[in-house]
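Quick one:
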Amino acid sequence: VLASFGRTEANIIQNLSTGQPGIAPGGSVVYSDRAMTRLNQLGRILFLDIDLAPLVDRLSNLDSRGVVYMPGQTIKQLYDERRPLYRRHAHLTIPCTDRTPEQLVQRMLADLGQDPLFRFR
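Output:
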């Protein structure tokens, strides 16, 4: 099931066109180098980095959040597995811990505004 989901997710990303103002794919997309390469072609990749503790609070029930994970896998294991992948693919890493959504948006816009490859439309 997980492999099938990942293939479907990667195939959908392959068919995205440029000009999308922003794409927020599911967290499992980072497992597909093909999908991440395509996202890189479409624009800047931001990693919203959060510490484990607040993430555990947000994702206390993985099933109700629609998170794709292996049976028996914990949030910490998922975090430890995915975080290096997110970091590897990100053009910009935005620290999220202890920031409000408004502060995050301000930080993203400021960081993107300094990025020579990003253009505000």
